[in-house]
Design brief:
This protein has a 7-stranded parallel beta sheet, with helices on both faces. A 6-stranded antiparallel beta sheet has the order 14-19-18-17-16-15. The chain has a two-stranded parallel sheet with strand order 7-10. The chain is 38% helix and 20% strand. The protein starts with 7 loop residues before the first strand and ends with a helix. The protein folds into 2 domains: 314 residues, 3-Layer(aba) Sandwich (Rossmann fold), CATH 3.40.50; 152 residues, Alpha-D-Glucose-1,6-Bisphosphate, Chain A, domain 4, CATH 3.30.530. The protein is of the alpha/beta class and 485 residues long. It is globular.
């Protein structure tokens, strides 16, 4: 096979950067092979059906699977990151995955590896999060394949974790008591600039086996970045009061309560904010020139995309989707309701697909809000996670504290609860045409309790089901019929 025809492997294609990198590689003319834990999760991406895309299902920790996925590939992108692992286990998990990836690349004859790491000075004061990124670099190189490391600080783009933290903090808190890290210098970079570097380095042999710092056009403190965000959102300047007593743990809990980001992700990010993250050289820009956006320009583009609902990928896209619960055996509670909607099937489906996020859940907004607040306090995602797009859903999408685990357009939508629960819960909607102008909608909530706590939970919330579930179905009916009229 000609070198140009050999595919490029992308791991992490379900994540924020990987999901945007694949279509850029296709635009540049490369055939792409994606390795993902769930092939189905990628099947709904707009580029999944491209003739030069191949999707392989496999675990990044399984060496045989990784070697098989790399067979015939000319280069490979390593975009795997597991900050959601419990405690410091993410660092051990990342190191293991990187070792497997490096060995597999060598065995498969891969010519180059590209890795997006973290910017920051080396040394004993490096945060655990950034130190883990350095360990991954070493582990990837151990296989002997040349590794190009692009080290970035805060990545600004609609849907990125950094953007969401920044936007929510600034929107919700006119006065902020913050850790001292607000005075730490940083060099944020726009996601479009990151993607340019990732794609371009593939054809620039001078970038092989190099560590390249990548950053935007200007250096600011986190305090200044917050004020830029406030100005872009049309808000008054925020009052920011740094104090020395806020630890990374307290900071991560505060981020968890105020923003959609979970404390598990916020903790390593908060730890890393104490380290200056500024480019030490401009080699990346000299080797792969482009117009770098300023912080203000990057935030402007991200806010505009967010307000238009043009969020190509989101931080919440990544992560595994558990297998189907074993509904057989044991106690399973069920609440099923049916209604005939005087609207065509396509209209009802379109209305249903707007559920959650800013639109809400058709009824009982106050009860949903209370449940979301309780979930955040218990460490769950709450309602603030929202949704990626205003009226489009795909398999694997986060939907407030639910996850889309089944979608068959225009007939079925299945949601799995990711809120803190003493059991497993699903919410299903099935649609069936009743002639050309009517649709039968069946809504089924299932709950499999875990122990006595689960039984007590179902008993406690049962009185609210008539309000929440019946109201949700009637609300869907009203909105769909209004659209049909």
């Amino acid at each position: 096979m000609d070198r140009k025809e050999r595919p490029v492997l992308v791991t992490g294609a379900t994540g924020y950067i990987g999901g945007r990198l694949v279509p850029r590689l296709l635009e540049a003319g490369y055939p792409v092979r994606c390795l993902a834990r769930s092939a189905r999760k990628l099947a709904s991406r707009p580029w999944a059906g491209h003739p030069r895309v191949e999707i392989r299902e496999g675990d990044a920790g399984d060496e045989a699977m990784v070697k098989d996925a790399m067979a015939g590939c000319r280069a490979a992108y390593y975009l795997v990151h597991s900050m959601l692992a419990a405690g410091s286990a993410y660092a051990e998990r990342d190191r293991h995955f990187a070792e497997v990836f490096g060995r597999s690349a060598a065995a498969a004859g891969v010519e180059r590896i590209m890795y997006l790491g973290g910017l920051g000075e080396t040394g004993p004061d490096l945060s655990q999060h950034l130190a883990s990124r350095r360990e991954v670099e070493t582990a990837l190189r151990a296989g002997g394949v040349p590794v190009t490391v692009l080290r970035a600080a805060m990545i600004i783009g609609a849907g990125s974790a950094s953007f969401e933290i920044l936007r929510y903090l600034v929107e919700r808190l006119p006065v902020m008591v913050t850790p001292r890290w607000v005075s730490t210098p940083c060099q944020p970079i726009a996601v479009k600039n990151v993607l340019h570097y990732l794609v371009t380095c593939l054809t620039h042999e001078a970038t092989a086996a190099r560590d390249l710092d990548i950053g935007g056009a200007d250096v600011k403190t986190y305090r200044q970045v917050m004020q830029v965000m406030a100005a872009e959102l049309g808000l008054r300047r925020r009052v920011i009061i740094p104090v020395p007593v806020l630890t990374p743990r307290l900071s991560s809990l505060w981020i968890h309560l105020v923003t959609p980001i979970s404390k598990d992700i916020a903790r390593p990010l908060a730890e890393g904010l104490r380290n200056p993250v500024v480019c030490r050289s401009d080699e990346a820009q000299r080797l792969m020139p482009q117009r770098l956006l300023t912080v203000a320009e990057a935030i402007h583009e991200a806010v505009r995309s967010h307000s238009r609902g043009e969020v190509e990928t989101s931080w919440s896209d990544a992560g595994s989707i558990p297998g189907d619960p074993d509904w057989a055996g044991g106690t399973v509670f069920e609440d099923s309701r049916t209604v005939i909607v005087a609207a065509p099937l396509a209209t009802v489906w379109g209305t249903l697909c707007r559920i959650g996020g800013r639109h809400g859940w058709f009824a009982a907004r106050a009860l949903w809000w209370v449940r979301g607040v309780i979930d955040r306090l218990l460490g769950g995602p709450g309602l603030r996670r929202g949704r990626r797009h205003g009226d489009q859903l795909r398999y694997g999408d986060a939907l407030d504290f639910w996850r889309v685990v089944g979608i068959e357009r225009p007939r079925e939508l299945r949601l799995r609860a990711e809120m803190r629960l003493p059991g497993e819960a699903e919410l299903d909607f099935t649609l069936q045409a009743e002639g050309e102008a009517a649709t039968r909608v069946t809504q089924t909530a299932r709950f499999k309790p875990r122990g006595l706590a689960g039984l007590a939970y179902w008993t406690a919330v049962s009185p609210f089901h008539a309000v929440v579930f019946r109201g949700m179905l009637r609300g869907l009916q009203r909105e769909a019929e209004a659209v049909a009229r």
